[in-house]
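QA checklist item 7 of 12: single-chain prediction sanity check.
[x] sequence parsed
[x] length recorded as 92
[x] structure emitted
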Amino acid sequence: MRFVLALHTDDGVAYGVTVPDLPGCFSAGETLDQAIENAYEAIDAHVELLMDEGESLPELRPLAIHQANPDLSGAVWVVIEVAVERYLSHRK
């Protein structure tokens, strides 16, 4: 599945990552590459937790919807593919 990431930095060194389609799913890294890599793990763990708790995966929205969100202004946008289908097929 494709997930949109919103990356922010205050100093150009460390980056915070928000996954807007997964409320409460955050990550960070000391570099842009590390922040993106850590986001894979955060998404994987978040989806696994949702499925373990019997929750549904929220609807994934297009990038343009997130770009229009003023709370995410100034973000660097990245779209990544994360293999979470195994959790969707093994729900409790």
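[x] summary fact logged: Residues 6 and 70 are 12 Å apart (CA to CA).
[ ] second reviewer sign-off
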